[in-house]
Amino acid sequence: MAKPIKLRDFLQRLRDQDPGIEVLSHRGKGSHLMLCKMTDAGKVSYPIPTSSGEVAGPYQKAVIRLFGLPENTFRK
Question: pTM for the full model?
Answer without folding.
Answer: 0.86
